[in-house]
Amino acid sequence: MARKPKLDTLLAEAVDTARLSLAEIAGESEIGEHLGVTAEGERLVTHRFISHKKGYQGWTWFATLARVPRAKAKDLTVCEVGIIAGEDSLLAPAWVPWADRLAKEEIEAAEAEHSAVEGEQPTEAETSAAAQDEQGSEQPQAIPEGEADAVPAQDELATDEVADEEELQSVKSPARRQVRRRRTAQRTAARRRAAQRNRARKDG
């Protein structure tokens, strides 16, 4: 069993030294009456004072002093000064992790948005098909002789493609842009097939 440290008389009587050391971090009016002294170890004590600091009611000032063997009162060492909370102190609420502070509605909304983004991710086959359609749409097509009447339809198709591209650029999310690009490619291919059918009927 550890032996209880003996209270050093010279350090225990150094109340003024402890108060002066606290005056370096607090105003004199904020340091109240002396509450007592406690032996922390051999030639090591802690003095406690009431706190009158605004907003720190119930707190306690402390100053820990020490000395070497055969040291005089003028040679005491101030080890630490500060203020600690008491049993009736006003304390800040306990910290709550961010995840625990979220409302149930916020969690459900975040999960729904995440599921929506994952649901719009195109498959590898769809991405490949869209890329092939885009490459085919970029290849220039010559207008055969006798099909001058099909030029207006081609101009309308080109106008629609420009409008689709502008709409695609307005989408900021990469996942949504990829889905929109696939749908745009499908619409472009459908328009081209319709134009080809119209030309075939006119030729027939």
From TrEMBL:
Sequence segments annotated as region (Disordered): 109-204
Which Pfam families does the record cross-reference, listed alphabetically?
Answer: DUF3027 (PF11228)
From start to end residue, where is composition biased (Basic residues)? 174-204
Acidic residues: which segments have biased composition? 157-168
Q: Which domain of life is it from?
A: Bacteria
InterPro entries the record matches:
DUF3027
What is this protein called in UniProt? DUF3027 domain-containing protein
